[in-house]
Design brief:
Helices cover 68% and strands 0% of the residues. The chain is built from 9 helices and no strands.
């Protein structure tokens, strides 16, 4: 089986993501754009994977135990999600990027931080590696948290839309663009 990618589709996605970097102009230095954009696409990709896992697990439970109420099924899915042998990672909160964005914007930063804090240790290490919590403070200060969350809250970066190879291509294309931007600004 050969692996192939739809380069035009992936370039369009990279262009769409790149727009968020352009929205940072005047609020962030060019070399800081990647500190905002790269972590949020990783977070959104992980969220899409987790939402798909929850949906699949909820369906499996429904097929095996149709007598359970929706609330009971959701609680069981949440308990299973916390088991590292059953789920690659978890988030103990009920937040998603969409829910964070749609809540009271006065609580946007606190809710987004709670969402990130709710991830399992393996994802928390990724967030820490990016030093994203400090970047959130900059986004709030520069009034960019809401626009960034708005752009990514529904962006389909899930495995049904993008294979790992395709996601890697998009990520590498963005890294290349950020690198080009840095070298032209020096």
């Amino acid at each position: 089986m050969s692996l192939s990618i739809d380069k035009p589709k992936l370039d369009n996605l990279a262009n769409e993501i790149w727009k968020s970097a352009e929205r940072l102009r005047g609020k962030f230095k060019a070399y800081e754009y990647q500190n905002v954009v790269l972590p949020i696409i990783v977070i959104r990709r992980l969220e899409c994977v987790l939402l798909k896992w929850r949906e699949k697990t909820r369906q499996e439970i429904h097929e095996k135990q149709p007598q359970l109420s929706e609330a009971e099924r959701d609680a069981l899915v949440k308990r299973l999600e916390q088991n590292p042998q059953l789920s690659p990672f978890s988030n103990e909160t009920e937040w998603t990027l969409r829910k964070v964005f749609e809540e009271d914007h006065a609580l946007l930063e606190a809710n987004f931080r709670a969402y990130l804090k709710g991830f399992s240790k393996n994802v928390d290490e990724i967030i820490e590696h990016f030093n994203y919590r400090a970047t959130i403070g900059q986004m709030v200060k520069n009034n960019r948290l809401a626009p960034i969350l708005n752009q990514y809250k529904e962006l389909d970066l899930g495995p049904d839309r993008l294979s790992n190879l395709e996601m890697g291509y998009v990520y590498e294309e963005l890294l290349r663009r950020f690198s080009d931007r840095k070298s032209t600004r020096l």
